[in-house]
Amino acid sequence: MKGKSLRMSLGKDKLVSLNGVKKASLVCEQGKLWITGTKEGDIVVKSGEKVSLFPLHRLVIQGGTESMFSMEIN
């Protein structure tokens, strides 16, 4: 997944799982997201926030509310 961009919407309690990601930046455009599987532990990201992610193995993103996010995967 190196060098990819994606934009995705997630409903409340819906999940997306990404494998093979070494580093990514994520912007929560709407709602609230719960992210797990990072070196930093679990992260909650709210609308307007941007985070850098360093996944351990699998990155799991869950919509805490109806959410929209974009990601740059390096």
TrEMBL record:
Superkingdom classification of source: Bacteria
Pfam family, one: DUF2917
Protein name in UniProt: DUF2917 domain-containing protein
Organism: Geovibrio thiophilus
